[in-house]
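User: Hello! I'm new to structural biology and keep hearing that structure can be predicted from sequence alone. Could you demonstrate with VOC family protein? Please show me the input and the output so I can see what each looks like.

Assistant: Of course. The first part below is the input, the amino acid sequence of VOC family protein. The second part is the output, the predicted structure written as tokens.
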Amino acid sequence: MTEAPESAGPRAPHAPGTPCWVSLMTRAADAAEEFYGAVFGWEFRAGPLGRPVRASLGGREVAVINQLPADAGLSAAWTPYLASDDVDLTAERVRLSGGTVAVGPLDAGENGRVAIAADPSGAVFGFCTAWAHPAPKGARGPGLPAWTELRTVSAVRVTTFYARVFGYEAEPPSAPDHITLRSGGRPVVALRGMGHGLPRALGAHWLPHFEVADTDATVRQVLDLGGRLLEPAHDGPYGRVATVADPQGARFGVARRVGTVPRPRG
């Protein structure tokens, strides 16, 4: 048996490398609010200047939605943020380990100190020191983040990078080139090597998964709301999961999550 990686939902305390929140950058933020509100039941609270908007569920902050500048030339995408005890030190480790720091480190008010980086394969992620409104440790349920997975050409090649930056311990592969990383003794993220199956136009990327009560019904709802199905619902190592995209093209997973499941056969 193997445990699913811990929820990416905000909670405290966070072991280094634990997903602590997620951010959506999109070209149509108002439309994104309508879409995710319908799919997950999220409620939204605007920041002092209108953006970013914070999404919450049952009083627990779940995500941040921000508007891409019109001239940004970027696609809509979700970005996970991983916990760090010292963002400046983590940024230095990223550089020394072959990654790139694109933004920061900088102070972000009540959310502590943050930075955005890319690993050697080009996958973008953030890291931060604090979260203003943490949910209880281990919080889970429909509408909350379930886990975070890196999709890359080779999981083995980037495992060393993430281990050096966050001090992860790698579990033995549960399937060919599928590696779970542990922090504080618990599984927190998964790395999935896809080889030539990784979409060339997309490249390496982190994919947040959100828990749902019924994966198949959620997929139908996503399609009804103008989203796309990228990977049909199937029974995987952490429950019944599907990969979809919102109407702006931002990819995410939905899963009817289970606590412990048999290891997949390689």
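User: So the tokens describe the shape?

Assistant: Right, they're a compact way of writing down the 3D structure. Reading them back into a model, for example: The helical segments are 29-40, 87-96, 155-166, 215-224.
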